[in-house]
Amino acid sequence: MFRKAAFSVVLLLQLLAAPSVAAEYQEGQVWSYGTRAGEEGSRLYIVRIDRELSIRPIFHIYVDGLKLRNPLMEGGLQEHLPHAPVDQETLDASVVELLQADAPMPHIGEGYSLWREAFGQGRAGVFTQPVNEIVQHIENAFNAPK
Question: How far apart are CA 66 and CA 130, in angstroms?
Fold first, then answer.
């Protein structure tokens, strides 16, 4: 009996310590997340949530505070990721602390529009890895030998 009660308490504590569930993710939120080294001040913004395009919600995020090496940018560094469509698992694996709710959101219109058109044609998808890995993947793509 004691084991069962102890197990129940441990399980309850784990559930309470879990970073989030889908109902907690809302448009207008700003989160800290597990960043790459040197980008600890980076923040993740949930700008838009599409619930009608898929069986599962698609979260459209903006990320600032980056030091993403991009030879196409003046100075060679990109400081923000203007749009990335992600799934709930990406957020669950990435976010650390809710910093602000109902915050003013950056504009993602152009990136979102391009993605939405391509998604509707079956030519675009949703990122499924943690945000720090998405940023690294994009940096690697920009800097791959041609």
Answer: 15
- Is the Cβ–Cβ distance between 30 and 45 less than 8 Å? yes
Question: Residue 19 carries which DSSP code?
Answer: -
Neighbours of 35 (CB within 10 A): 21
**Chain-centre distance for alpha carbon 4:** 37
For 78, the 3-state DSSP assignment is strand
Q: Count the helices and strands in the chain (H runs, E runs).
A: 4, 7
CA 33, distance to chain mean position in Å, is 8
Strands 68-69 and 77-78, how do they pair? Answer: antiparallel
Question: What does the pLDDT look like over 28-59, one tens digit per residue?
Answer: 999 999 999 999 999 999 999 999 999 999 99
Asked if 25 contacts 46 with a C-beta cutoff of 8 angstroms, the reply is yes
Average pLDDT of the residues of the chain: 89
User: Which alpha helices (H) appear in 18-108, and where do they start and end?
Assistant: 88-94
Q: How many CB atoms lie within 10 A of CB 34?
A: 15
